[in-house]
């Protein structure tokens, strides 16, 4: 997930997202938490958390999280960063910046994204589970790593009432 913006955009994560957190071996958050309470709750409720800070995260979150998080997950080299710049030219920029990764999860735009660069880097943006901006739905991603392959599913959340 990314761009949760709690408690500014929502008071809490949707129940469906918490269910996915509980079922996951690894939870990824690509920044823009806004307040540390969600980080603390995810640290408690996640089997493993890989996360970075975003541009809307202040000193407390920046002191606890890296700008770029890196981890090995199921044989894949995973990176997590908040900002990747404009969509145009993203693949080439990320190939240069992250030539040591297999998968890069990013946020910032709130726009779901799933592409593979010419060098083979998989770029994933889960959108936001709490702030759809101009998108039709709030979203998050789940993924399964098996045999060195990554299968990804985008989940659309129902409108909040």
UniProtKB/TrEMBL annotation:
<dbReference type="Pfam" id="PF12850">
    <property type="entry name" value="Metallophos_2"/>
</dbReference>
<dbReference type="GO" id="GO:0016787">
    <property type="term" value="F:hydrolase activity"/>
</dbReference>
<protein>
    <recommendedName>
        <fullName>Phosphoesterase</fullName>
        <ecNumber>3.1.4.-</ecNumber>
    </recommendedName>
</protein>
<dbReference type="InterPro" id="IPR024654">
    <property type="entry name" value="Calcineurin-like_PHP_lpxH"/>
</dbReference>
<feature type="domain" description="Calcineurin-like phosphoesterase">
    <location>
        <begin position="1"/>
        <end position="145"/>
    </location>
</feature>
<dbReference type="InterPro" id="IPR000979">
    <property type="entry name" value="Phosphodiesterase_MJ0936/Vps29"/>
</dbReference>
<comment type="similarity">
    <text>Belongs to the metallophosphoesterase superfamily. YfcE family.</text>
</comment>
<keyword id="KW-0479">Metal-binding</keyword>
<dbReference type="InterPro" id="IPR029052">
    <property type="entry name" value="Metallo-depent_PP-like"/>
</dbReference>
<dbReference type="GO" id="GO:0046872">
    <property type="term" value="F:metal ion binding"/>
</dbReference>
